[in-house]
């Protein structure tokens, strides 16, 4: 079972899991599941903030493995209104854990939190580093993280925590930097926008992993992770955002100007975020496989395909 299965990472996780058998995916009520989801996926419309709906869905499906990815994922929107993040990330997680606790059989849960639970650090971040979130979003992910570990320690649930750092790739929403760059380039190439890309702060450095490697890490944590333990999901390398943009621009078929848009800057932007993947590598055997050049190329190609339809209707 996968909550948040209609999301970015959730969709890629479904692709991996559906290759080996039937998987249940949750999507928000009122929304439609992705049209391109694998046929082995059985969809359920479940609102994680609805305690009764969550309890009924888990009792009905009786999973023995549950990946909890459902969440409000935007750091930016949390600065203006953190209530949805609190409801989904914290209360929703509690509902899921409560429902799993009532199952008559064991069910292993991977709760996906975030590297946003950590504070700023001059060195690669380990799982034992201080937890000092720098945003309202990070605070909600820290609460979610603590709930998961408490469920393992106090309630005896088989729960493992994954703390992903930044991940990118095909099908990511355009509200994230690399996906935004790729979408703008594709629109320019199709004549849908002037040859100018608006950007925010390009000097920050972020630990970047391909989303397809990230979901492989979630599966490894599910099968090999220790209950009650947290695992960084990261590459161990911090990429400068400017270098990622330059990599996409080199793949473009046209000349593009880059301009700064002050509205794209965050209220708080940590200069460098780099993770230490030693624990997940040593305890589960996971390591990222996909080169950053392939990730950038695949992301741009996906946006080119999406933009082709826009160009036909323009």
What features would you describe in this structure?
The protein has a five-stranded parallel beta sheet with strand order 1-4-5-6-10, sandwiched between helices. Strands 7, 9, 11 and 13 form a four-stranded mixed beta sheet that branches. It has a two-stranded parallel sheet with strand order 2-3. The model has no long low-confidence stretch (mean pLDDT 94). The protein is an alpha/beta fold. The chain has helices at 8-18, 51-61, 75-80, 83-101, 136-153, 177-189, 211-224, 241-251, 278-284, 292-313; strands at 2-3, 23-27, 41-45, 65-68, 108-112, 159-164, 166-168, 196-199, 205-210, 230-233, 238-240, 257-260, 272-273. The longest helix has 22 residues, at 292-313. Strand 5 (108-112), helix 5 (136-153) and strand 6 (159-164) form a beta-alpha-beta unit. Helix 2 runs parallel beside helix 4 (83-101) and helix 8 packs across helix 10. It has two domains: 2-168 and 210-233, NAD(P)-binding Rossmann-like Domain (Rossmann fold, 3-Layer(aba) Sandwich); 177-206 and 237-273 and 290-313, Alpha-Beta Complex (UDP-galactose 4-epimerase, domain 1), CATH 3.90.25. 44% of the residues are buried. It is globular and about 60 Å long.
